[in-house]
Amino acid sequence: MKFLQFFVLPFLMVILSVSGANLARHPHRDFLRCLSLRIANSSTITYVHNNPSYPSVLNASIHNTRFSTPTTPKPYAIITPRKTSHVQSTIYCSKNHGFQLRIRSGGHDVEGVSYVSQVPFVILDLVNFRDVKVDTKNEVAWVQSGATTGELYYGIASKTQTLGFPAGICHTIGIGGHLSGGGFGILGRKYGLAADHIIDAKMVDANGRVLHRKSMGEDLFWAIRGGGGNTFGVVLAWKVKLVPVPTVVTVFTVNKNLEQNATKIFHRWQHIAHKLPNELFTAVWVMKVNSSQVGKKTVQASFKGLFLGRIDELIPLIQYAFPELGLARENCTQMSWVQSVLYFGALPTEPVEILLNRNALPRLSLKAKTDYIREPMSETGIEGFMNMFLEEGTDFAITMIEAFGGKMDEIRENEIPFPHRSGILFESVYIVQWINEEDAGLCINWMRRLYSYMSSYASKSLRAAYYNYKDLDLGTNNINGYTSYEQASVWGLKYFKNNFKRLVRIKTMIDPMNFFSNEQSIPPLLSP
C-alpha cells in the first residue's frame, strides 16, 4: 500500500495533470473529435481555419462588413448542419467542450451578434435549413430558419397570387432571426407582425430535446415569437399562417426635398398616416441627395405607399385625406403583392426570381438605431432632424419612418413579446453606412448625435427600441459570468417593456445554465 501511496499514486497524479493540461490546451481538437463520434462524415459540414472554404463560408452571410475586418474575432469552427441530429450534436459538443454557440440564419444581425463573440465560439449556420413548403388549401406554410424572406415570398407567389405573408421588405434576411424578433413590414398595418402569424415551430433546446408547440408548452411558444434569437434554443422551422392579398396592388413614391416643402408635408403626414385605412401602408424615407443647384446637396423625403387595391381607389382616398402630398396617377404603379416587396426593396420588379438571389444587395458597414414616436414632431423639430442629414458622414445615411396604427393598434402589448403596439404613430429606423473603415468613427458619432437629437420626440417614460435592429449602445450582458436582472433590464425593457419579466422567467425555466447567450440574449435568474 505504501508503494501505491508514495510512488504509483503520485505518478498517476502527474500523468493526469499533464493530460488535463493537454485537454485544457486542446479544446478545439476535442470538440472536433466529439463531432466526429456523433456525426458520420462530420468533416463535410464542419469548417475550421485550415479549411480552404472557411473564409467563403464565414463571409457568405455577413451582411454588415463592419464585422468582417482582420481584427474581428473569428469562430473556431462553422457547422452547417443538414439534419436535426447534427444540430443536437453541435449543441452537445459545444456545451461539453467550452464553446459558446452563435446561431446564424441570414447573417443580417446589425451588431454581428449571430456570428461574432469575444469568447471562444463556434457558429451554427443554418444555411442548409432552407426548405419552404406552402399549403394553399389550408393557407399555411412551413419554412425553415435558414430560408430568406425572399425565398418564402417566392415560394408563396409560385403557388398562389391571392396569399401573402406580412414580413419585412429586405428579401435577403433570414427567416429565423426575422421571426424571432417580430418582423414588421409593408403589410403590417393590415395584418400585424410576421411573428403574429406563427402557429407552430420546431426547435432544439439546450438539452438536445426536439420540441414542437405542444411539447414545448405555451410559455416557451410565446417567448420564441418575438423574444429574440439565440436565447431559448435553436428554432429549425416555423409554421406560419398566410394572409389574403388582392391579385393587384398599387405602390407609389412621391419625392419632396427641403425646397419643395418636405418639412411641412411630413408634419402633416405624421398626423394622418396612422389613421388611414388599414389597406394603406405609408412610409417616409429621409436621405441626402443632390440639389438642383450644381455642387449643392439637399435632403429628400420620399413618401412611399402600398395600397391593397387599384389606382382608381387610391387616388381619391389620398386626395381626400392627404391632399398636401399631391399624389398623381403617374406616381403610381399597379403590380402583384410579391412585386411590391421588390419595389420597396429598391429592386427591379421583374423577374421575381430576384427574390432567390441572396447577393442582390450591396454589403456595406453600418450602424442602426430605432425609435417609436407617439406624439407628432413640431415643424421646427422636423427641420432640425432633416438638416442633420447635410452634415459630414451622411452620404449613405437613411431614416425609414413607417406608419403604425391599423391592426397594430388592435393587438395587445403582451400578445407576443414584441410590445410596441397601440398609440404609436410611427417607427423610425435610423441607419448609417460607410465604405471605408476610416469613416466608421465619423459615421457612428453622427448616428449617436442624431439619436440624441430625437430623444425629445421619442417615447417619454421609456425610450423603446426594436430588437430586430439590435443596438449594443443600449446596454449588454456580461459575456463571462452572471448578468443580473437589473443589468439586463437596462436594455431588455427598451425592447420588450413589461414582457421582459416573463421572458426572463421562461429563460430560467428552459435554459437555467444560460448555454444560449450573447450580448443581448435574455438572461436567466440566478438560482437561490
TrEMBL record:
Family to which the UniProt record says this protein belongs: Belongs to the oxygen-dependent FAD-linked oxidoreductase family.
GO molecular function: FAD binding; oxidoreductase activity
Pfam families reported for this sequence: BBE, FAD_binding_4
Main location as per UniProt: secreted
Cofactor(s) recorded in Swiss-Prot or TrEMBL: FAD
SUPFAM superfamilies, per database record: FAD-binding/transporter-associated domain-like
Residue ranges constituting the FAD-binding PCMH-type domain according to the UniProt record: 71-245
Compartments in which it is found: Secreted, Cell wall
Residue intervals passing through the bilayer: none
This protein's name: FAD-binding PCMH-type domain-containing protein
PANTHER family (UniProt xref): OS08G0158400 PROTEIN (PTHR32448)
Signal peptide annotation: 1-20
Keywords: Cell wall, Disulfide bond, FAD, Flavoprotein, Glycoprotein, Nucleotide-binding, Oxidoreductase, Secreted, Signal
